[in-house]
Amino acid sequence: MSLYEYVKYRNGVPLGAKGSLPNMLKRSMGASSFKKFWQHWNPVWGYYLLKLIYQPIFKITNRNIAVCITFAVSGLIHDVIISIIKGNMIFVVTPWFFAISIFYIILEWAGVSYEKVRFYVRTFINCSLIIICYLISVFVMKYIY
Questions:
Q1: How many domains does the chain have?
Q2: 38 CB contacts (<8 Å, ≥6 apart)?
Q3: 64: CB partners within 8 A, 6+ apart
Q4: Are the C-beta atoms of 126 and 39 separated by less than 8 Å?
Q5: Are 38 and 8 within 8 A, CB to CB?
Q6: Domain range spanning residue 24?
Q7: Fewest CB within 10 A of the end CB: N or C in the chain?
């Protein structure tokens, strides 16, 4: 699947089309599970993570490890970019995204779905999960350092 096809599949509109950002936000925030949130969030970034990180790792290990490594690598790339911009090493996003990967796997394994609740409740749940993962990662990192 090409990037163009992937973005249209995840976003509902072609790459760069009018309404692309609102579609992404609506589909991700209103997703009926944490897994589906990430399937719709930033499809361009997701495409390259899928092709360059997840699929090669999945070929040599299991799905859960591939998910954790993919989220951690994504976090590391974010941290490197932030570090370059700030001019000093930042290590915040990597542990946060790793925590997200753990929640992603656990919630998927448990079959957690909130498809029967309203859009705004789903949005609240998805945003809350992201914030909870951030708070957990900050707490854990304070323990490590």
A1: 1
A2: 28, 46, 100, 104
A3: 105
A4: no
A5: no
A6: 3-144
A7: C
